């Protein structure tokens, strides 16, 4: 617990900062693109798309990385850098978008595509790095074979709790009290704290080893072990494509709910 608690705290902080960014970007995008479900959807699609791309990129690289915690710290520093410049980039795009929108019908698919393009240009770089943080932290946190699901579940819970806190604080208090730019600066400050904490921990803990085998199961639990093994064999018969496809459908539905509820 002494080793894992600081990692959960770091991932909690990154969850707080990520949703501070998202809520603030939505707020600023509505000022740039107009208050509409299209602006909200464009920001959300860029945010989640960038996160997915970052996860895909990191998933194939972190397994053999001997210093994933240091990598996590560098990713957090990169998020802070891109986050700091994001409000200025969105403001710089405002006259470009206004000129293009005046020349077209606001309900035109071209205007919607333009919103999506500008959101992608500004938001994908920081969200790409956000997506890469989960594989990096999972590599640093998960140390026992057979407990990877449990360990990643704890990480996801810490990140989601942080995200809920960041979302609530930003929507109810931060934007009203600090304004858009200062709220973004606060999120970047949390990234810098997480980056510094991760790099210091990486120096203290040293290289990360491959996940170790689980402890031997006592004889009294042999029946439970056989049952679990049978379940694992049943799961193994499912193709990875099917599992990923089912998970993608659930993600599609979840984000669909979010857009409809926001509307």
Could you walk me through the main structural features you see in this protein, from its secondary elements to its overall organization?
- This protein is mainly α and 263 residues long.
- The protein has two domains: 4-215, MFS general substrate transporter like domains (Growth Hormone, Chain: A, Up-down Bundle); 218-263, no CATH class.
- It is built from eight helices and no strands.
- It has helices at residues 4-33, 37-59, 68-102, 109-141, 148-178, 180-205, 222-236, 240-262.
- α4 (109-141) packs across α5.
- It is globular.
- The model is unreliable at 219-223 (pLDDT under 50).
Q: The CATH topology of the largest domain, please?
A: Growth Hormone, Chain: A
The sequence of SSEs as H and E is: HHHHHHHH
Beta-strand content bin: under 5%
Rounded mean pLDDT is: 85
Which outline best applies?
Answer: globular
Rg over CA atoms, rounded to whole Å, is 21 Å
Distance between the termini: 42 Å
Poorly predicted residue ranges? 219-223
Number of domains: 2
CATH architecture of the largest domain: Up-down Bundle
By CATH, the superfamily of the largest domain comes out as: MFS general substrate transporter like domains
**Which assembly state applies to the chains in this document?**
single chain
Task: State the CATH class of the largest domain.
Answer: Mainly Alpha
Tell how many strands the DSSP assignment holds. Answer: 0
- Helical stretch count? 8
Q: Decide which structural class fits the backbone.
A: mainly alpha
- Sketch the major β-sheet: none
Proportion in helices: over 70%
């Amino acid at each position: 617990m002494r080793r894992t608690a600081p990692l959960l705290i770091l991932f909690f902080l990154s969850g707080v900062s990520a949703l501070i960014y998202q809520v603030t970007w939505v707020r600023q995008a509505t000022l740039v693109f107009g208050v509409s479900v299209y602006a909200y959807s464009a920001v959300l699609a860029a945010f989640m798309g960038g996160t997915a791309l970052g996860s895909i990129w990191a998933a194939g690289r972190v397994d053999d990385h001997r210093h994933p915690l240091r990598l996590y710290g560098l990713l957090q520093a990169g998020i802070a850098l891109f986050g700091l410049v994001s409000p200025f980039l969105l403001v710089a795009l405002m006259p470009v978008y206004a000129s293009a929108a005046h020349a077209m019908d606001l309900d035109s698919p071209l205007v919607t595509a333009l919103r999506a393009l500008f959101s992608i240009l500004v938001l994908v770089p920081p969200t790409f790095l956000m997506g890469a943080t989960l594989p990096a932290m999972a590599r640093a946190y998960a140390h026992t074979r057979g407990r990877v699901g449990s360990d990643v579940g704890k990480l996801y819970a810490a990140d989601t709790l942080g995200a809920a806190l960041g979302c609530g604080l930003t929507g109810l208090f931060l934007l009203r009290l600090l304004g858009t730019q200062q709220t973004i600066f606060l999120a970047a400050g949390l990234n810098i704290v997480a980056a510094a904490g991760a790099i210091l921990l990486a120096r203290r803990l040293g290289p990360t080893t491959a996940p170790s085998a689980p402890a031997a199961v006592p004889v009294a639990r042999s029946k439970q072990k056989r049952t679990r093994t049978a379940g694992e064999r049943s799961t193994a018969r499912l193709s990875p494509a099917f599992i990923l496809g089912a998970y993608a459908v659930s993600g599609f539905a979840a984000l669909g709910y979010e857009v409809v509820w926001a509307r």
